[in-house]
Specification:
One of its GO terms (biological process) is proteasome-mediated ubiquitin-dependent protein catabolic process. By secondary structure, the chain is an alpha+beta fold. The protein has 2 domains: about 1-140, no CATH class; about 185-310 and about 375-485, Methylamine Dehydrogenase, Chain H. Helices cover about 25% and strands about 30% of the residues. It has helices at about 1-10, 20-30, 35-40, 50-70, 75-85, 90-100, 110-115, 120-135, 145-160, 175, and strands at about 190-195, 200-205, 210-215, 220-225, 235-240, 245-250, 255-260, 270-275, 280-285, 290-295, 300-305, 315-320, 320-330, 335-340, 345-350, 355-360, 365-370, 375-380, 385-390, 395-400, 405-410, 420-425, 430-435, 440-445, 450-455, 460-465, 475-480, 485. The strands form 7 sheets. Strands 1-28-27-26 form a 4-stranded antiparallel sheet, with no helix packed on it. Helix 4 (about 50-70) packs antiparallel against helix 5 (about 75-85). The longest helix is centred in the first third of the chain and has 21 residues, at about 50-70.
């Protein structure tokens, strides 16, 4: 054993705690205050004077309270007048302790009034406080090995490109070899094929609560699905008639869903109450085309922003059977929008720019200038990153705060079609999109590494959506009129 310890010392360059620190810890836990004070006095060569003074005050307070509870008032008075530091920074504390000389410890809990520690278990907190004042070369931080193991686990989980189990803690094996999830944990298996739509399925969006899915098609009603568990979805509601549904947006409380059509000047924007199964309100949108829309989060009454490529860009205040305009921007031809939690609207226009707009003060600012036409974009849940689908350069990931291009993702051709991409998985660490090659493409958020291509559709994949609550649940919709539900082969219900 000693040889093993010596080898560890030699290889790590570290040694055990200083022997004085070991004795100090044990004395504090046992309440041996005189001996603890004696040990502190021996630490002068390698601990600063101010730290030693602070430690000494903590120990003297503990001894003072113990003397009071033992009815040794004279000794307690001597401690304050002789042993307690006379430094001005401790004067107020000493005056407070002096007032306790006049109380009856049988009637007043002096431990509670001073914050002193009564038992060995409580004194562990005192040891932690003292450790903060000592160099790590003298006394190790508490649970240091456990902290290092947790850091190692988090690093290994972050580097695992298949890590999907957000709730899974470290297993003993990660000490012996680097952690790597198996493909069994990844959503590669089609658990359901939903064929309720009778035409090309154009869009899909999960509700923020993760319990519902909305899908729209080239023709036919907007369908609402209920997420039964981590691998099963079933029909819930149906809205509308034969108009197409090209864009879907959920309210933050998952109660309303707004839908807009594409290239249909005779169709309004409809907002539906999902649970009542009825129209909540309608926005006059006739004469506009390619409308995009987004709800503000946490807004009551509800606020919905609509825009299009004809220069209409307006905010609406929604109530039952009513939608009142409340601010607008003129002259911007918008292709995609997203409402941030801070009240800002992020919008992409026909000049290949991503700009931010604030209806509260009518301000606007350019954030990103792309190199080619922007087709669409999606913002992650942290609102730090934006994934932009460009016509010539594929998918491009930007940092919204610094307006910095982080990386590009290629290999999933979209051509001129609108394809809705998504962030998802545990901690939103993956990016998924559809393609004209009939496949779903998945990358790691932190690199441009293509992880998987999911086959099964027989037509262009128009949208991919990742469930915000079930990180192993993914859906895709296609020109083949189907919705595919992707899960791990042996997905369990959370």
């Amino acid at each position: 054993m000693q040889e093993t310890v010596a080898t560890l010392f030699a290889e790590s360059g570290c040694r055990l705690e200083d022997s004085l620190a070991v004795r100090l810890r044990e004395c504090c836990l046992n309440g041996e205050w005189d001996l603890a004070l004696h040990i502190v006095g021996k630490m002068t060569p390698y601990v600063s004077r101010s730290s030693l003074l602070s430690i000494r005050v903590k120990l003297l307070e503990e001894k003072f309270v113990e003397l009071l509870t033992k009815d040794q008032t004279v000794q307690a008075l001597r401690l304050l007048s002789v042993d307690f530091p006379s430094h001005g920074s401790f004067a107020e504390r000493r005056n407070f302790l002096a007032t306790l000389l006049y109380v009856d410890p049988n009637n007043v809990d002096v431990y509670a009034k001073t914050g002193a520690h009564r038992s060995r278990q409580e004194r562990s907190a005192l040891v932690s406080d003292i450790q903060q004042l000592l160099p790590t070369s003298v006394m190790l931080p508490p649970c240091r090995l456990e902290q290092l193991l947790k850091q190692s686990w988090r690093m290994q989980a972050r580097d695992c490109y298949l890590h999907m189990a957000e709730r899974r803690g470290p297993s003993p094996e990660f000490i012996l070899e680097d952690h790597q999830c198996s493909w069994e944990d990844f959503p590669l298996f089609t658990s359901q094929v939903l064929s309720n739509h009778q035409d090309e399925v154009w869009c899909a969006a999960f509700s923020p609560c993760g319990k519902y899915l909305a899908t729209g098609a080239k023709c036919g009603p907007t369908l609402i699905w209920k997420v039964v568990n981590g691998r099963t979805i079933e029909p819930y509601k149906s809205f509308g008639g034969n108009q197409n549904t090209a864009v879907i947006s959920w309210s933050d409380d998952s109660a309303l869903v707004a839908v807009a059509a594409a290239e249909d000047p005779n169709t309004d924007v409809h907002v539906y109450d999902v649970h009542k199964g009825a129209v909540y309100c309608t926005l006059d949108n006739r004469g506009n085309d390619n409308t995009v829309l987004s709800f503000f989060a946490g807004s009551h009454p509800y606020r919905l922003v609509c825009a299009d490529q004809k220069g209409h860009f307006c905010q609406y205040i929604l109530s039952d059977n009513s939608a009142k305009p409340s601010g607008k921007f003129e002259g911007y031809r918008i292709r995609a929008i997203h409402c941030l939690k801070n009240g800002t609207v992020i919008a992409a226009d026909t000049h290949n720019r991503v700009r931010c707009y604030r209806f509260s003060d009518d301000s606007d600012q350019t954030l990103i200038q792309e190199q080619s036409q922007i087709i669409s974009f999606v913002v992650d849940k942290t609102e730090r990153h934006i994934l932009i689908d460009t016509k010539l350069h594929g998918l491009r990931l930007w940092d919204l705060e610094s307006a910095t291009l982080l990386r590009s993702y290629t290999g999933a051709p979209h051509h001129d079609f609108v394809v809705f991409s998504t962030f998802g998985g545990a901690e939103h660490s993956y990016i998924a999109t559809g393609s004209v090659d009939d496949k779903v493409h998945i990358w790691s958020h932190k690199s441009d590494r293509l992880i998987a291509k999911l086959s099964g559709h027989t037509g262009k994949v128009n949208a991919v959506a990742w469930n915000p609550v079930y990180p192993q649940l993914l859906v895709s919709c296609s020109d083949d009129s189907t919705i595919r539900v992707w899960t791990p082969f042996n997905a369990d219900n959370p």
